[in-house]
Amino acid sequence: MQNEPVVEVTETEFNEIVGNGHKLVVVDFFAEWCMPCLMMAPIIDEMAEQMKEVKFVKINVDDNQELSEKYEVRSIPTLIFFKEGKEVDKVVGGMDADALEEKIEELLKN
Q1: Catalytic (active-site) positions
Q2: pTM over cut 0.85
Q3: CA angle 9-3-97, nearest 5°?
Q4: Is the pLDDT assigned to residue 2 strictly greater than 70?
Q5: What digits encode the pLDDT tens for the residues 31-64?
Q6: How many Å is the Cα radius of gyration of the chain?
Q7: Domain ranges of the chain
Q8: Is 12 exposed, middle or buried (0-12, 13-18, 19+ CB in 10 A)?
Q9: Which CATH architecture group holds 7-109?
Q10: Cβ distance 85 to 21 under 8 Å?
Q11: DSSP 41-79
């Protein structure tokens, strides 16, 4: 079974996905004008293909300001990791594929 590509979601969809009890959800807070965000996109897409047990979604901060404020997203890209509906970790700024994979595997173990 192949994961669908990483999709941009609305606040309602975000709440459904995060609250759905997924083992791990990685939420990429981004903006289309943000160069580091654009550089992270292919890394996140690659992880989504490799890690079937993890759900990846994107939130456009320009379109979802309330959600961005709720999770205190001050700079982008920001990745927030949710386990069973609860925020378990946050990474601000870009990261390479190895670092992201390591972070996800660590969170899946705990």
Answers
A1: 34, 37
A2: yes
A3: 85
A4: no
A5: 999 999 999 999 999 999 999 899 999 999 999 9
A6: 13
A7: 7-109
A8: exposed
A9: 3-Layer(aba) Sandwich (3.40)
A10: yes
A11: HHHHHHHHHH-TTEEEEEEETTT-HHHHHHTT--SSSEE
